[in-house]
Every structure is written in C-alpha cells, then in structure tokens.
C-alpha cells in the first residue's frame, strides 16, 4: 500500500518547525504542502533554514485557516498560547499535531498557573511509550506532542515509579542544549554567553515542564508523584541528559532495577536500555528518535539513579510529532525516523 | 529492481568507519556484513559506536582476508599506509573503496614525500563532481575516496580555475572540526585543548592534503596550479569551511563568477551554489552529503573569493564512499544519502 | 612587609600544575623555582603550557627530593597516589600543598575503597570557608587541597546542613568541564567526543569525590550525612555547576534560606551568595577564586535547592592551593587571587 | 610614585566595556568612577556583568556629559557612530579613549563608505607596537583603540611588509570568536546557531575592518598595500586567529623570516614571536594582552605565511585601551595587564 499524505507546517522558520520539516523530507509517504510563519511570512525558506536544501525555494505564507486548509495533517510549531485559536478552525477530520504546550495538561489550573491565560483544552498526549498510550493515539485527529524535558524525564523514571521500586518523590536535574529555548534572539542565549558556561534556570519548581512531568508520572501510580525538577543550560545545540533519582523502596539491586527497565521497554522501538555499565550520552542520539536509558542503585545513598538522553528537537519534539502522525494515520510507527544518531 | 549488496567495513570502530556504517544503515540495498578493527577486534561495537544502535550487539573481527572475503563491497577505513596490503589480497571483482590516502595520488614521489613509505598505487579518484569523473567511477572496482580538505577545496575552486577566471595560484585557508583528526587519543585533541581554541597546523605547504588539492586543480588546466594551503582546527566536531581565493584574470564581476559556478554544477545533485549573498556554513551540511558554495569578487583586492562547506565525515569521507559505491554498482547515486543537514 | 617566597611545582606540565603557575605568576610575593614533571622531564615548558609566556624558556626537571628541596613551598600536582612518597622526604618545615587526593580523607578504609592502595595519611583540609578551618590552616606545613566537586558541593550545602534546614540526605548533580579529568590523552575526552555531548559518569555513588563530600558535610552535624552524588561531563573546558537539594525540615521560606546562606558566608571573601533571583553560572567565575551560590525552596516538592558555581581549576584546585599557601605563610589570604572572572 | 586615576566607562554593560572594567579592577592605580549605559541605564551592574563581582552593586547611569565629567580618563565603549558627539563635549584635558571605530580612519571617504554617516575625525591610533606609534601615544588625550581584526592582522604582517619580504598584496583569513560581534541579541549569533558551525561573513572586502588594515600596512611602505580580508565566525567566545599570507619577494627562507619577525618585535612586551615550529593558538592568549605570532615560508607556493593570535576583547579591545591609558598617563605600559593567558 502506498499513500501520500499532504502536510502543512505552521511555524516553519523556527527550530521545532525546522525539525519537523527535516524529518518529513525523509518520510516516504509525505508531500510537504504549505509552510507558514509569523513575522517571517513572505520570506523564502532558504536563508532561514539553510540546511533544508530541497525546500530552499519555498516561500513562507501567513499562518491562517486559508493557508493551512486542505492538508491531511497540520503540524503546529507555534509559541505557547497560539495553537488553540487556529486549531479550533481546522476541520475535525484534519490531523492536527501541536508541538506546543497548549493541549498537554489536563489540569486547567496548572496550565494557568504555569503558562498564564486560559486553558485551551486537553488533547491525547503524544508519548506512545507510556502504557496504553499508543492505543489512544491510533486514529486520533488531535495530538499534543510532549515537552522535551517531560519526554526524557518521564521515560527515565516511569519503570521505577510504575513498578514501585522507589518512593513517589523524585528529583530530576536535566542538562539541555540551547535549541530548546527557541530561535528568538535573546541576550542570554547568545553564543558568547552560552559557550564555556553552564547555568541553572527555572529553579524551585517554577519551570513550565514541572506539572507535565508530575502529570505523567502520577498516571502510573495511585496518588501524586512529587517532582523536584531543575533544568540546566549547557553549551551544546541539541540534547538533554536527565539525571533522575528517588529513594529506594526496600532492597533493590542494580541488577533488578536494570531488569525492570529492560522489561518495561522491551517492545519499544525507540527506547534503548543500554547494557549495564554503559551510560547514555546525548551525542549518541543526535538527530535520532532514540531514547537511551540506564539505571543503577546507590546502596549507600539508598537511591535509584536513572539517566536518560534524548535529542530535544528530534524525539523531544519533531521526531515525536512524526511518530504521532504515523500512529494517527495507521502508518508504520517508525517511518521517516531512525534510531541511529549522528556522532561524533 | 531490487538488489542486496553485502558490505564489509574494515576499521569499524573509528570515525570514518562509523560514518560509513551510519550511512549504510539507512541504505535500502545494503546488508552489513563483517565489521573489523585493529586493536578493538573482539569487542562489541555498542560501547565503541553508541550511536549505531542497530549494530550494538555486533562483535568486531580482525581485519584480514578471511573476515573481509565474500562481500560485494569492502570499505577500508584504515590508518594511512595500511590499505595497500589488504586490498591486494581481495579479488578484483570485489568493489574496494578506500577511505584512506593510499591510492589518491598519481605521483609516487609526492606520496612518498608527504606520507613516507612506498606508494601503493593509484585508483580511480572518488570525486564524481569533477568533469568526466563520474564516468570513470561507473563500474570501477577500486576507488580512492578523496581527502576531506581536498573535496571542499577542489569543489570551491574548480569552476574558477577551469573557466580561467583566476590565475593558477590559489590560497586556501580551511577551518576544520576535530573529527578529521581521527579517534586516536592525543593530548592536543582533548576537549579541554580544543574548546575555546583556534589554531593553525601543517602551515607552509606541509599538510598531506596539499599535493592532492594540487593534483585535482591541475587536472583542470594546462600546467600546474600552485596551492597555498593552511588548515585550521576550530572547536566543533564536524565540518570544514574552506575560504579560497586567487587573483582575478582581468575584469570579472561577482555576478559573472556566480553564474559560472552555478552553471558548472548545474547537474550536480550534491553541490549547491547558494543564492548570491548567502554564505555557506558548516552547520547546514552536518550529516549530509551536500557541499554548499558561494563566490564573489573583491574588486579592490582584485581577487575572487570562494567559500565552501562540507561535513568532513559525510561528503568529506563516508558519504563520498557510499556515493562511490552507488556509482560503482550502478545504483542510483544518491541512495542512502541526503542533502538535508541537521541544524541547529 | 615584603617577603619573597620560593616555590616549586611538581607536575608543572599538567592542568593543575599549570593553573598553580598561572596564579603564582601574578602573586607579588612569590619567586618560582623548580618546575618538575614525570614523562615530560627534560622538556621546555613553552610548548607544553603555551599560555605561561614568562616561563616559556624554563626546562622541566624530574620530580625528586633534589629538585624540590630548598624551596619554602612545594606544590604537588601529581596523579593520585604519588604524593605520599615525595612528601615524606621533604622537611617538616617546608610547606607542602598537595593538589591530589592522597591526604584528603580521614577514613583510611574509604580511601582504600575508592582509590585503592594504602592510605598515605590525613592532612589539614584546605577549605578555609568551613567553620574553624581557616584557623587550622594558619601556619600549617602540610595541606590537602580539596577536590573540585567537593569544594562546590560542600559550600553549596553547608549552610543548609549546618543550620538544620534540611534532612541529612542530600542529592548532588554536578556538571563539569573537561579539564577536571586531566591532560592525559583518553579517547572519551577527545574534543570530538566532548563537543555536542553531555554524559553522566561515576553514577551510583562510585565517584571518588563521594566520600569527601560526605566527610565534609558530616563534620557539620551529628551523625552522617547521606550523599547521592552524580557527576556530569558537559562541553566546556572549565567550570562546575552543582545542583544540590535535600528535603526541607519543616517550613522554610526561600527568603529564610537565602538569609541563612548570606549570613553563613558573610565574612568569606571568595563566596558570593547572589541576590535573590540571580542564579550562578560557571562563566562568571572562570579563572577566578570566587564561588557563586544561590538557594531557594520548592514548596511543592518540599525541597531546598542550592546551586553553586566554581572554576574547577581555579578555586577548585590551583586557586585553593594558593589561598592555602597564603594562609599557611600568614600572607594576606587573597594575594595573587581575584574574585573577577573572565566573561564572556 | 603612586597616583590614583579616576576613570569612567561609557557602555559598561556591553562586552567591550565589561572587559575594560575587568582589567581596571586589577589595575593598581585606578579608581573606577561612573559607569554608564544606554538602554540599561538605571540598572544594577551585577546581573548584567555577573563576573565583575566587586562592582555588582553599582548602578548604571545615563551616558552624558554630566555623568562622565570629572574623571581623569573616560573610556568610550559605544556602538559605532556614537563616540563623536560625547567626545566633543569632554574637556581637552580629559584622556578619552574610544574603543569604537569612529576615530580610527584617516580617510573620511573610507569611513563614510564602510560605516555610513559623517566622519567624526581621526585620533592617535592606539597600536603602540607600530613603529613610532608609542611616542605618539605618550601624553595623548584622545586615542582610538584599533579594531580587533586589524590589531592581529597588522601585527602578523607588519614585519614582512615593512622589511619587504613580500609583495604589497596580502591575504588575511581571520577566524574569530563571537564576542567581537557584541552583546546585542541577534538570531544568527544565538548559541544554537554558533555551536557546531563555522561561517564566513563580510566576504569580498566589505567588512569594515578592511580599510583599517589597509591603512595600517600602507603606513609601512611607499604606496598602498592591497588587502584581501575574510573574517570567519567560529564556535568560541573569545579569540582571533589570523592566517595571513603574501607572495614572497625573491628567495626568503623560513629562518630568515623568523629572524626578521623576532627582531622587529624584540622590544615589545606583549608580542611574542614563538619559537620556530610552535604555532599560535587563541586559548593561550585568553584574557591576556599578549599577541602570539609565528611565520614560515611555503617554498612551493612561493608565499610567506604568518599566523597571529589575540584575545579580541583583551589585546583586541579592552587590553589595548588600558595599555593606551597607561601610555597616555606616563604609567608603566603593562600596569593591569598580563601576558599570561587562561588555559585550558
């Protein structure tokens, strides 16, 4: 069977939109239709995304119902708070995949506390690796792509939390490359400020991804999982390395923890629990849809430590978006995606 | 038509071998056979090339006739001087593609001056973008993959030299990422020494790629092109940016130079002469087989300036190797390759 | 008063030795005497430490009693396990400052568990910012310079632990530049492997700095503090950013935590508790002896979060060594040191 | 003799102003007075320049006659085109040192061609290493600090040009860190765009530093030196590495070239012609006022190749500014400056 899926991308000049397009260019069933932007509407894509050579001559259009209509799939890669209005105008039959935060949280109060403005709603959550979630996404026409930090933090802790290896009180420190902060020009994101520099931000539970991690992990247990989340900015363009830990419940050996993780993800094509003793590194997943995980226990500190690596733009955003499109359309889940990273 | 090509890679634990494998994993007609190594023989590939997830469980074998025999294609990604002996043992019908320098130079004296030891011979040179060279490579069973610096330097200057826009006396300053220096542990290549650092090396015409650039450009004219080549090491893993210039022959406008370059490469799938005013950057070609070029003239200085960008490991090594394999076997030249880079 | 202190540095070709020398070159009371090395003995310092221009013509000698004798102060910047033997030969009156780990731990069993070999002994611990420790160092003739991770981890947590704001059960995730791993050539420290990469290592309490952090924090309370310590390697040459947390004991506001930290370090010339809302970054302390700290509480997660930044080579090694020398000799503590970093 | 010089810095929140302040904080004869800014006026310096700890509590004032009056020395670190007006208001007796381009060029037409607007005038040029220039600067009350690229390009080529080793037709390719582009937020300078990327810009003689290099070199000979100048942006915060070449005039050996360079700079405290065979690297000069140079000849290409390294913010801007202040005031030229870089 061969089908051609027509796809529009709103926000095509940003990092998330660029990554969706990079992956779609390698997708065998996709025809790339309208490319839209905000302030860049009217410009050629070439100088804005010079790595997307086959699309260099495409001109960006305005983001509106007219330009986005008539496609099978619309990817929204817009600033937070802008997806709701345009999504409401698109037909129910169009598959709309939102790379932003607007539809991720079920708790409207949490949304309003962390993002401000009113909550647009809640869509099926695009993390098929969570138990039962792949079935939810099959055939869905509205999908909220997870945040990059929540993707790796959730997958790093899910087996431990779900299987009761640890107390529901977790600590996540996640070092991220800068592309997660987007392409808008800001002084603190200048190369001069970033290179040779590591910093923490959003400390104390105020980062917007905190309630999303909490929501994900709390789905796995009765009651609420407490999450202490600290994001770090480190000098690289792509990649997140999440170091996650929680107090052990009783005696758990490193071997058992590893076995639990291995079994939990045994059928997942994109989650790789590394052999014992090999730790994840972000370079290995650059450009790929893979998640690399490792787990051990610190007997003296009585904690389980899990470390996960993803490419924040790929599996953390654009890769997940394409994976969700494949699931929504009933295509093979891995079309246009790879588990092979670019290294060194 | 569908064929399955069985391929062996010698030197699978290094950077060049790893890149060949990364690309082969995305090649639809290839079956990856023996993976061999020197001191790493006997080890699993997983910890050595953690980005090559699908091959993680493969064990490296010794590099010898027995392990390499029985494949349609053998890629040699060995230290300079080691390809000759093993290549001589392989059947003439096996397609042997050497990523090293052993068979690149036609001038044995030059080889011995720059590399030491005796010259192994000269194989068809794997730069299909040179005039007439694609035909040479079709059906070839021995191919020498060009050096990374020569690839970008040659392609950046070829139109100007071949069309007589400049005197045959060129200056190339090429800034390279560190992966071109290989994976052997050396103090001056430590991350601590590389980050925050730019340096020149091999200054004064002593770098081994100098005679190769000279050979390539001199094929385009009568007589010998004089080449001043200075390589720089800059803090990035991948990519070469070559800044090339030569004295103008008479009046040449920037527009004419751009038109000459555009026409020269009009049929080349991997060479992109950018629109006037847009300059190449290495990030745009990361992981891809694309070469980005731009040219202008400096009227006051009376020089033509051409700038080219490649990924030294991709089009500069592994991508060229796969492109050559495709040509040698009569496959579509771009199979397993892309013009889309990974950015940011 | 003016005195001239004659100083020898053993291990002058490495990173720690180089940093001690960099700082000594700006110290007004120091005369740099013998420079010794292991395998580099006999070589000129110039090509090995090209940033130390005034010492470029100095030739490295072998590390032994003869070369090191006759100096007022001897800095040992040797691989772990090599300081004990040479230190034992030096006169008691010579001030010996060990930048290595040999004399840091009081617990011989812990030393042997984490470092192997037999424990050389315990010297006064060169962290004058710990309560009462400045007095111990005044006039001392044997001083163990703290490890880089323990310096920042200890100072980041000491006020919270000592003042009982938190349970004695702490989590430290510390992102480090690569210079802390030293100058010996290793594949995983190559620039190609480091750039674009973040990784965890020594996970699960097995890093050698774990018992040292435990020792430091446990001195501040009754009983033992449990420490979960995970070091990360991120793409920068210098700097450590430590993200530290622990469960709050009762209600503690962010304001109170900040006030406790500010008061704890009020007289410390090199520890800067930043104004509330400003978070430490490693770039700000590059090359300086400063430690930047910030603290807050996460009410939802019921944890105190403290973040500290140091230059691992400066305050984390060489700067602390010079600071300790100043204290040992009764010089002004800040001679040759600065709180001003090099940024951007 | 001890004097206290009161100093104001206009543009204290930018990179150039920050570097002037970093150096002044280590200058024994200086008292830092007014700190002024444009859009940041009214803010505390602490969060804007977090590395300048001793000035963290200082509040920025507006840049005007009132705030800058009453100081012995005023440093202007303003955007190009803004120095002229404020400088005209300051008393002739005030030493005014302009880190911008306004007063560098003697040729008003060149200024207007490259910078636009009207030429503000020409001040003594702050490169004391040029023959006779130190005398010009002694006692001067108006000084134009050279551009960063012109500093290293000029010093790298001056001996060869002045001594007639080469034709007056030079090629400069200079790889720079990003801080030279300033602290204003621009998309193409984001960390995500810079890391893993090398690019050329201002190609074809259009960069503003071209006429300044031409002016400097042409002072050394009769007639005009032709300059082909191409700047590159590479992934580091600080440093410029300039690769310079020109056709040899007759037979010149590498030894003779090296001897000429050594003799030319024999009395210069900040210019270090490295021993033959050792090539400059930017890391070695980070934070220092040193210029590292090396020269050789390429006999086959018949060119002299000189390579120079500076820290663009230090000797390339702030260090030169302080050096010029010292000369203007009759202080020891090296006060507050160092030849020792921070590495690794």
UniProtKB/TrEMBL annotation, chains A, B, C, D:
<keyword id="KW-0055">Arginine biosynthesis</keyword>
<feature type="domain" description="Semialdehyde dehydrogenase NAD-binding">
    <location>
        <begin position="6"/>
        <end position="138"/>
    </location>
</feature>
<dbReference type="GO" id="GO:0005737">
    <property type="term" value="C:cytoplasm"/>
</dbReference>
<protein>
    <recommendedName>
        <fullName>N-acetyl-gamma-glutamyl-phosphate reductase</fullName>
        <ecNumber>1.2.1.38</ecNumber>
    </recommendedName>
</protein>
<dbReference type="GO" id="GO:0006526">
    <property type="term" value="P:L-arginine biosynthetic process"/>
</dbReference>
<dbReference type="InterPro" id="IPR036291">
    <property type="entry name" value="NAD(P)-bd_dom_sf"/>
</dbReference>
<keyword id="KW-0028">Amino-acid biosynthesis</keyword>
<dbReference type="Pfam" id="PF22698">
    <property type="entry name" value="Semialdhyde_dhC_1"/>
</dbReference>
<feature type="active site">
    <location>
        <position position="148"/>
    </location>
</feature>
<keyword id="KW-0963">Cytoplasm</keyword>
<dbReference type="InterPro" id="IPR000706">
    <property type="entry name" value="AGPR_type-1"/>
</dbReference>
<dbReference type="GO" id="GO:0003942">
    <property type="term" value="F:N-acetyl-gamma-glutamyl-phosphate reductase activity"/>
</dbReference>
<dbReference type="InterPro" id="IPR058924">
    <property type="entry name" value="AGPR_dimerisation_dom"/>
</dbReference>
<dbReference type="GO" id="GO:0070401">
    <property type="term" value="F:NADP+ binding"/>
</dbReference>
<comment type="function">
    <text>Catalyzes the NADPH-dependent reduction of N-acetyl-5-glutamyl phosphate to yield N-acetyl-L-glutamate 5-semialdehyde.</text>
</comment>
<dbReference type="InterPro" id="IPR000534">
    <property type="entry name" value="Semialdehyde_DH_NAD-bd"/>
</dbReference>
<dbReference type="Pfam" id="PF01118">
    <property type="entry name" value="Semialdhyde_dh"/>
</dbReference>
<comment type="pathway">
    <text>Amino-acid biosynthesis; L-arginine biosynthesis; N(2)-acetyl-L-ornithine from L-glutamate: step 3/4.</text>
</comment>
<dbReference type="GO" id="GO:0051287">
    <property type="term" value="F:NAD binding"/>
</dbReference>
<comment type="similarity">
    <text>Belongs to the NAGSA dehydrogenase family. Type 1 subfamily.</text>
</comment>
<keyword id="KW-0560">Oxidoreductase</keyword>
<dbReference type="InterPro" id="IPR023013">
    <property type="entry name" value="AGPR_AS"/>
</dbReference>
<dbReference type="InterPro" id="IPR050085">
    <property type="entry name" value="AGPR"/>
</dbReference>
<keyword id="KW-0521">NADP</keyword>
